Amino acid sequence: MPTTENHHVSVDSTRVVCPLFQTEEGGSIPASTLQLIYEPCPRKYAAILNQQWHSRLPRCEWGTMKFAFHAKCGGVSYAVALWSTPVARMLPGNWLELRRLACSPEMPKNGASSFLAWMVRYLRKKSPATERLISYQDTEVHSGTIYRAQGWAVGYTGTSGDSWDRPNRSRPNLNGDETIASAKIRWERVL
Fold it and tell me: How would you write the pLDDT of the chain (191 residues) with one tens digit per residue?
């Protein structure tokens, strides 16, 4: 795993750097979330694995992220998450937005919920100025189960007729226009 933000790792070499099926150090696929270790990781590393695993938004600008985490077992990552200040400019700067959460196919059942719960506890301790956590669920591909399981509340519901894009944005959407057009739900968690 890269140890610095500037370490150059290509998407193709990530599995070589952190192979999914590792035989040394007792690495094996975790059968339970109890076997997972959660910890911060380099932002670029999380972005590379997000690109491989995320179902809808594989691309992200990792340089703008404030926090990056991974869930690992035996030195192998099974999930990654990236957090930033809210993208929506009208939201307070002391909130954090879960921009990406991506799991490998080998992630144990309920692993994403367990990972999310750990991140909430971590951010409560390490980012005391943060008042609220938010995340957007794409209703076309996800049901919001992990947020419900962890006691998050629905903060805003958008419809497919609402535009999540703003014409004055200078940068194009990295993941295509269809991701903007889908209905979203904003989940919130007060810290």
Answer: 444 444 444 444 453 344 444 444 445 688 888 999 999 999 999 999 999 987 766 677 877 899 999 999 989 999 999 999 998 889 999 999 999 999 999 999 999 999 999 999 999 999 999 999 999 988 787 788 999 999 999 987 765 444 444 444 444 455 444 445 567 899 999 99
Task: Give the tokens for residue 166.
Answer: 């703003």
We report the CATH number of the domain holding residue 76 as: 3.40.630.30
pTM of the prediction?
Answer: 0.75
In a domain, 83, yes or no: yes
CB 44 within 8 A of CB 7: yes
Q: Does the residue 9 lie in any domain?
A: no
How many domains are contained in the chain?
1
62 inside domain = yes
- Sequence letter at residue 38: Y
Domain range enclosing 54: 14-190
In angstroms, the CA 38 to CA 63 distance is 21
The one-character DSSP state at 150 is T
